[in-house]
């Protein structure tokens, strides 16, 4: 069976004391819930300055992995303000989000750059959570599938089978991120199934069946259960709701 995931992307939020409080609450709640053997992999992705302390707090509770929100494509060098995958791994990160729509939009990250970041992350032993998704204009023009197919082909499908096996994919319709709008369960399932078909074509059926595909885009405690019930939706990349401990744990319980 495919691994289920709930990953919290804190974005540029929370001070150190706030992050400590939220992490402790999540760890305690998950411990109290005593989730079964089929529990999802939970990942928390704070901003860079918070990684070490959040990682230590997660280590105390176990079963929750630490992730970063981005990495640089080079291992080291004169890149002031940047953070390498090797550095992230050294502070305990196991995952890194790559290709988030906000990185693509605000920092002009293209598929060529992201392919380099993927290689760097994998080379450092990190598991990438690779994001794809369309804008409202693309969806209204009925170009969603062509657009996502190109993102996958140009940004991801250059990986070897062994490398690709370590990747988690997140489908995030840009029009639903932080807007309160959510793709319907039918829309989410349709795109997730399409992504799985593309993987099968680029690799094989086994790779397609084994790849976890997450939904991101205003997934919350109210709609997570319905979204996660779809056969090709393997969890969520959670934004705003990951900043509220009760909501985030409720989403984890939605399986």
TrEMBL record:
Q: Which InterPro entries match?
A: Aldolase_TIM (IPR013785), TIM_sf (IPR035990), TrioseP_Isoase_bac/euk (IPR022896), Triosephosphate_isomerase (IPR000652), Triosephosphate_isomerase_AS (IPR020861)
Pfam families referenced in this protein's UniProt entry, alphabetically: TIM
Q: Which GO terms describe its cellular component?
A: cytosol
The active site lies at 100 (electrophile), 172 (proton acceptor)
Q: Where in the cell is it found?
A: Cytoplasm
Catalysed conversion reaction: D-glyceraldehyde 3-phosphate = dihydroxyacetone phosphate
Q: What EC number(s) does its UniProt record assign?
A: 5.3.1.1
Pathway in which the depicted protein is active: Carbohydrate biosynthesis; gluconeogenesis; Carbohydrate degradation; glycolysis; D-glyceraldehyde 3-phosphate from glycerone phosphate: step 1/1
Q: What class of enzyme is it?
A: isomerase
Instruction: Fetch the SUPFAM superfamilies from UniProt.
Output: Triosephosphate isomerase (TIM)
Role noted for this protein: Involved in the gluconeogenesis. Catalyzes stereospecifically the conversion of dihydroxyacetone phosphate (DHAP) to D-glyceraldehyde-3-phosphate (G3P).
Q: Which family does it belong to?
A: Belongs to the triosephosphate isomerase family.
Protein name, entry field:
Triosephosphate isomerase
Task: Name the gene that codes for it.
Answer: tpiA
